[in-house]
TrEMBL record:
It comes from Pradoshia eiseniae. Residues 13-91 form the HTH arsR-type domain. Keywords: DNA-binding. This is ArsR family transcriptional regulator. GO terms for molecular function: DNA binding; DNA-binding transcription factor activity.
């Protein structure tokens, strides 16, 4: 799958090119395969000249490509150049927040784990190791995982501590795409998912279910629709006043309790407590699975 990534600054002209019914229909037709202008004109039911003008506009924006191929003589054939167009609404580098350390951790970069079936690791193109075999979590290519899941257990990550010497940490947050783990998928399947930072329990979120039946935005096409497709993007944040989940306070653990500046790394552990009321497992999504193009993002703010 080929993506076109745009920023807010350079997206306007592409959006203008797409804001026309004929051009959108041309892209839909080209999604089925290459066509020349005559073929496009016939399928659209519009004049050749009108089709040619719209094809030229899409060519100018590099949204389609044209090449000369042998046929009855030589003919010009058009093909779609991208499968998806992604507009990044994040600020440009010059606008990035000061005194912020941001690290996107791949989900396969855990340093410790315990996984009980149903469990597994999934890469871009296939499973990693064997399904429902906890030994697969120790495979040497586990770092290539884009989806990991288990019914019970945990995974632990260690982030480099880049806090400048002499600074104090004011806020620490983790954002990740996550959901429950049910056989195949099940929207109503609660699971109590707990997070620990530097060994301290900071709070539990009850995932409502394991979501499938509709393909996740980044989920590869080979992955069956009957299985988990996407999760929910959740944000745990520890501040000077407590710990918050999606803006709602869930515990009294404060940033000073984590003693971040005294440790060479920052430990993040995500799992299911043995005494949890709802032991409904975990699905954790990477950059190329689910609805969000990220791993587990840590944002650390300091003074």
């Amino acid at each position: 799958m080929k993506d076109l990534h745009l920023t807010v600054d350079n997206a306007l002209e592409v959006c203008k090119a797409l804001s026309h019914e004929h051009r959108m229909n041309i892209l839909k037709i080209l999604s089925t395969g290459p066509h020349n202008v005559n073929e496009l004109s016939e399928k659209l039911g519009i004049p050749f000249s009108t089709t040619a003008v719209n094809v030229k506009k899409l060519e100018d924006m590099d949204l389609i490509i044209s090449e000369l191929v042998p046929g009855r003589g030589t003919q010009k054939v058009n093909s779609k150049n991208f499968d998806r167009i992604i507009i990044d609404l994040s600020p440009s580098e010059v606008e990035l927040e000061k005194n912020l350390i941001s690290i996107d951790m791949p989900i396969g970069e855990y340093v410790d784990c315990k996984a009980e079936p149903s469990c597994g690791l999934v890469g871009d193109n296939d499973y990693i190791g064997m399904q429902d075999d906890p030994r697969s979590f120790y495979e040497t290519n586990r770092r290539e995982a884009e989806l990991l899941y288990f019914k019970a257990g945990y995974v632990e990550y260690r982030y480099p501590n880049r806090t400048p010497y002499g600074s104090s940490v004011s806020e620490l947050e983790f954002t990740l795409e996550i959901c429950s783990e049910a056989p195949y998928h099940k929207n109503d399947w609660p699971s109590d998912i707990t997070m620990w930072i530097n060994g301290i329990e900071v709070g539990t979120w009850t995932s409502p279910g394991d979501f499938g039946g509709e393909r996740g935005f980044n989920t590869p096409k080979w992955w069956s629709l009957h299985f988990t497709q996407y999760g929910l993007l959740k944000n745990w944040k520890v501040t000077e006043t407590g710990t918050f989940l999606d803006g709602n306070k869930i515990s009294d653990v404060r940033i000073k309790d984590l003693q971040i500046t005294k440790n060479p790394y920052i430990s993040l552990k995500i799992g299911i407590k043995e005494e949890a009321t709802n032991i409904g497992g975990i699905n954790l999504f990477g950059t190329n699975f689910g609805n969000y193009s990220q791993g587990i993002v840590m944002n650390l703010r300091y003074l």
